[in-house]
Specification:
- The complex is a heterodimer of chains A (about 120) and B (about 800).
- In chain A, about 80% of the residues lie in helices and about 0% in strands.
- With about 120 residues, chain A is mostly helical.
- In chain A, helix 2 runs antiparallel to helix 3 and helix 3 runs antiparallel to helix 5.
- Chain A is elongated and about 50 Å long.
- The relative contact order of chain A is 0.21.
- In chain B, the strands form 6 sheets. In chain B, strands 1-28-2-3-7-8-9-10-17-18-20 form an 11-stranded mixed β-sheet, with helices on one face. In chain B, strands 4, 5, 21, 24, 25, 26 and 27 form a 7-stranded antiparallel β-sheet that branches.
- The longest helix of chain B is centred in the N-terminal third of the chain and has 27 residues.
- Chain B is α+β, with helices and mostly antiparallel strands.
- Chain B starts with a helix and ends with a strand.
- Classes of the chains: A mainly alpha (about 120), B alpha+beta (about 800).
Chain lengths: ~120, ~800
């Protein structure tokens, strides 16, 4: 349930607000409805991962993957070990880690915030 | 315990979010950059992506209709001048905003603000040569011309209307990666953009290199090796053309023509070498030579190739104008193009318009300098540099004399503080505030005939250009045009004496006395950056123009051409014949193989069989180009070191060297002065340089092989991103050409726009393309879509519409802009 709520609320919110709005949303949902710390983390991390990967996949396919290839070329020129990795999966992974960690950790913090008052 | 858990988890979450939302050193804010809702993913574009079809904008006075063709060229139909330039600004910003701003940051010496320390030296140089300062003055002076001011302001308003509605997610991706925001546009920034062109095309000097040569070898040697007119020239104005004017008196040559103080100690410039070979080709054939009976005009300006592209195609239409052509992002109007009646194009004039004066200061404060027998005050300007990644800004003091700013580099600052302080002041045409270059294009865009063309040219100042022209009244013409200083002979060939009034620039060549020719008997006009006119022209323009090979080739082909078509001119633009090889290769081969020792050498055999064309697959071109470079180095680097840090010099021209090989085979310059007890001969030098060329090619590309040694592989043309972002350019493009070739494609430079226009009594037919695409967005299919066609030497037919309602299968979208 939390997973669905975070997914929908942050999809709408990110349309109008900066990317970091996922942190307060995950925090609020984590505080409001979570049963366990791990549950809070998983729902939020999963929701943002789904949302970001889903949306980015759409944008990427519309653009036939050109943008991610260009950005890939740019980063691999500066960070050599990236050269040996396939660009598209690598950039989806980096994106997923960023989004899911911010959301997951925020939801966990929300859950612990709620515990203060129990 | 609960509290601790909360605090720890909160710090982790907040800390991570905060860290990802701010830049770390050169790394931009990663959270924002990777978020699909805001970051780089948003910059992806699809082929189907068409801009919105209706826009309501504050700032237009009436309805504007824009039609996009299949190459995403906007065709703007407006009801008045204001709206057409407003829309031009708006659309250029939409496609090229980052690039436009980048040029202005470069010209005003502010790149370090966005890219940090590594741009600081370049910024210091840009500030010292005073481009920002000059841009302000040009605008202040120009805005008294009401049309000029209105055009620039309408254009600015269009750019700003676009910028104002931009959100982070729609920013060009370069802003996201480097991490900054666009600033407001203004007419001043358009002038800065033009300053950039002045610097690229007119911003170099050989003065200090020539002074070094003079102080080492004396005037006789310099006169011999660095003559004022080459032996093989084919000038722009055909030899024998009458000068239909009474020349104004030219200032007398003073007794002393160069600076008197010792130069060797104090001159250590970072000023780039004069490079007239950043050149271009243009020509027009008259109706007598064309298949249609009316003129055909061609132009290909050569510049350093970049992505986003230097040019942007547009059609601009109002009730009083309908023009199509290549525009410069950041500037209103069409720079190279055509309308119903006329076509025009430009190439650079390599005249000497940047001179240096040695200045004697009274003391270390540099507040006064010696001039005409008295101390004269300098003016002082403090330049402040904000550098990304530095907590505090840096300051630099720039002093100016009546000549211009004092330019010197850091290394020589030390020299200034010892004994008598000596500086060098720059006199540069780019500082001229008079005139309004853009008005020349404004009037050309509306020109109907030859007289309109001549009138338009009077507005133009710098960088001086060879304006080629053709009309459907069967007139053709070419005019090396711009504000050209009235100099005594050889004035500014060497560093001059800043205290001597006779060394000042003392006036200008009257603009109607700039060299020009209309409908010459030979039936064509052309230019390839060579000398504007032969020595019968009454004024001195400079001693070094681009080498004449391109001009010789263009003129000999046009001479023979009959019933010319668009395609014959297109093929001439792609001509790869090596005129220099025709002249000197047989001579060099004979010297090389005088004792038949090279008969079996495969490199020698390849050269012997070479068709003398710099085609993409030719190995002969690879060997020849490498060889003559090596040969020139071997002959002259010992006596005229280009790379000497203390006293760099320039090599005599290639033309001079070929003359020497043929006519003075025993000249002392063939001896290598750094080998003691040994006297090298011409034959030694030729043999040695040939061997060295083959060795260095083998080292770099392996043993000789038709694939790895093919000319295009060795030359390897790259079109890099303007901001040098790796992955955003295109490398190793397959094509032929070379520096002295009509198809002047080198490692980094080349034809930045190719255009051929066939004039017509009814409606012209035009063809053109540039190596890039209309969009500045690296992820757009229109970012580099014309490169492959360009490399093959093909042209696109340009869609020149009669009205907004014209039907064409090439129309891919429309946009209606109405008043908000």
């Amino acid at each position: 349930m939390n997973y669905i709520i975070i997914l929908i609320v942050s999809a709408v919110a990110q349309y109008f607000l900066p990317w970091w709005v996922i942190a307060p949303i995950a925090f609020a949902i984590g505080a409001w409805k979570s049963e366990t710390a791990l549950g809070a983390y998983a729902a939020a991390a999963g929701a943002i991962a789904t949302l970001w990967v889903g949306y980015a996949t759409f944008l990427n396919s519309v653009n036939e993957g050109i943008m991610v290839q260009k950005i890939g070329g740019l980063f691999t020129e500066n960070i050599k070990f990236l050269k040996n990795l396939p660009v598209t999966p690598t950039f989806f992974t980096i994106m997923t880690i960023i989004g899911s960690q911010v959301a997951g950790l925020s939801a966990t913090a929300g859950y612990h915030f709620r515990q203060l008052f129990k | 315990m609960k509290f601790v858990k909360f605090i720890i988890s909160l710090l982790a979450a907040a800390g991570l979010t905060y860290a990802l939302n701010r830049p770390l050193g050169p790394v931009p804010a990663l959270g924002r950059l990777f978020s699909p809702f805001e970051g780089f993913w948003q910059n992806g574009e699809s082929k189907l992506d068409l801009p919105p079809t209706n826009l309501q904008l504050e700032g237009v006075q009436d309805e504007v209709n824009v039609v996009f063709d299949d190459n995403r060229v906007p065709h703007v139909f407006a009801k008045n001048d204001h709206d057409v330039y407003f829309t031009q600004g708006y659309l250029m910003a939409r496609d090229r905003l980052w690039q436009m701003e980048f040029y202005t940051l470069a010209a005003s010496g502010r790149l370090a603000e966005v890219v940090g320390e590594r741009a600081l030296e370049l910024d210091r140089y840009s500030r010292r040569i005073g481009m920002a300062d000059a841009a302000k003055k040009v605008y202040e002076n120009g805005k008294t011309n009401k049309i000029f001011d209105e055009v620039l302001n309408a254009y600015s308003a269009g750019v700003n209307t676009y910028i104002k509605q931009l959100k982070y997610k729609n920013l060009p991706v370069e802003y996201k990666i480097i991490g900054y925001q666009p600033e407001e546009w203004s007419p001043y920034k358009t002038i800065l953009m033009m300053m950039n062109m002045r610097n690229v095309l007119n911003g170099g000097s050989d003065d200090f290199r020539m002074s070094n040569a003079l102080s080492k070898y004396g005037m006789e040697v310099v006169k011999d090796l660095f003559p004022n007119y080459p032996s093989n020239e084919s000038p722009i104005i055909p030899v024998g053309t009458k000068w239909n004017f009474t020349p104004v008196p030219v200032p007398a040559v003073p007794a002393q023509t160069t600076a008197t103080l010792s130069t060797s100690e104090s001159v250590a410039f970072d000023v780039p070498q004069h490079s007239p070979e950043i050149g271009s080709n243009n020509w027009a054939v008259s109706g007598e030579k064309s298949a249609t009976g009316l003129p055909i005009l061609a132009n290909d300006p050569h510049l350093q190739l970049t992505l986003p592209s230097i040019w942007y195609q547009m059609q601009l239409c109002t009730p009083t104008m309908n023009v199509y052509g290549a525009c410069l992002p950041g500037a209103p109007g069409v720079v190279i193009g055509f309308n119903k009646d006329v076509a025009w194009g430009v190439t650079n004039v390599g005249s000497d318009v940047m001179d240096f004066y040695q200045i004697k200061f009274k003391d270390k404060t540099k507040k006064e300098y010696w001039y005409n027998g008295a101390w004269k005050p300098t003016t002082m300007r403090i330049e402040e540099f904000v550098v990304k990644g530095r907590p505090e800004s840096l300051k630099d003091t720039v002093f100016s004399t009546h000549h211009g700013p004092i330019v010197y580099n850091i290394a020589s600052d030390k020299n200034f503080n010892q004994n008598v302080p000596v500086g060098h002041a720059m006199r540069w045409v780019a500082h001229e505030k008079e005139g309004t270059d853009l008005m020349a294009f404004y009037y050309l865009n509306r020109a109907k005939n030859y007289d309109d063309y001549r009138k338009a040219l009077t507005y133009y100042v710098a960088p001086a250009q060879n304006f080629v022209f053709a009309s459907n009244q069967n007139d053709i013409s070419i005019t090396p045009n711009g504000k050209l200083p009235l100099k005594w002979k050889e004035q500014g060939k060497f560093i001059m004496d800043g205290s001597n009034p006779a060394h000042d620039w003392q006036g200008w060549i009257p603009v109607d006395q700039n060299p020009t020719v209309k409908n010459p008997p030979r039936g064509f006009v052309s230019s390839a950056n060579q000398f504007s006119a032969d020595p019968t022209y009454p004024y001195y323009l400079g001693w070094r123009f681009a080498p004449s090979e391109r001009a010789i080739r263009i003129n000999e082909r046009l001479e023979k051409m009959q019933k010319a078509t668009v395609d014959s001119l297109r093929m001439l633009q792609n001509d790869n014949f090596n005129v220099e090889a025709r002249r000197i290769l047989p001579v060099l081969m004979k010297i090389l193989n005088a004792d038949s020792s090279e008969n079996k050498n495969p490199a020698y055999q390849t050269l012997a069989k070479w068709n003398m064309k710099n085609d993409a697959n030719e190995v002969g071109a690879t060997i020849f180009e490498r060889w003559i470079k090596e040969l020139r180095y071997t002959v002259f680097e010992d006596e005229f070191p280009m790379t000497d840090l203390k006293a760099p010099m320039a090599y005599p021209s290639r033309n001079r060297m070929w003359d020497m090989i043929v006519k003075e085979p025993t000249a002392k310059w063939f001896d290598n002065v750094s080998t003691k007890n040994k006297q090298e001969t011409l034959q030694d030098v030729v043999k040695h340089s040939f061997k060295a060329s083959i060795d260095s090619l083998t080292m770099k590309h392996g043993p000789m092989n038709p694939d790895t040694w093919a000319w295009n592989k060795v030359k390897s043309t790259d079109i890099n991103h303007l901001g040098r972002l790796p992955g955003f350019g295109r490398q190793d493009i397959t094509n032929g050409g070379g520096a002295g070739i009509v198809n002047a494609t080198t490692e980094l430079n080349g034809p930045s726009w190719r255009m051929v226009v066939q004039l017509d009594k009814g409606w012209p037919k035009a063809y053109g393309l540039y190596p890039g695409g209309q969009s500045g967005n690296p992820a757009s299919p229109f970012y580099d879509n014309m490169i492959d066609k360009w490399a093959k030497g093909e042209l696109n037919e340009l869609l020149f519409m009669k009205s907004k309602d014209e039907k064409s299968s090439r129309i891919s979208g429309t946009l209606k802009i109405s008043k908000k």
